[in-house]
Amino acid sequence: MIIDIHAHTTNHKLWNLHTETATIADLERLAEEHGVTKIVLMATYFPFKGSGLHNEELLTRIGDRKLFVACGSLDMMGNVELGVMRLRRLAQEKRIVGIKLYPGYQDFKPSGVTAFPVYELAEEFNLPVILHSGYLHHCCSDASERRCGFADCPLDKLEYLSRPSQFFGAAQRFPRVKFVVAHLGNPHFSELRDLMRICPNVYTDISGTIEYAPEEKEALRAEIEHFITLVPNGVDRLMFATDFPIQSYADTIALVESLGGTIHPGPWACDDNMDAGDPWGIGDDGKANIYWKNATKLFRLEVNNASIEK
Question: Interhelix angle for 80-92 vs 55-62, to 10°?
Answer without folding.
Answer: 30
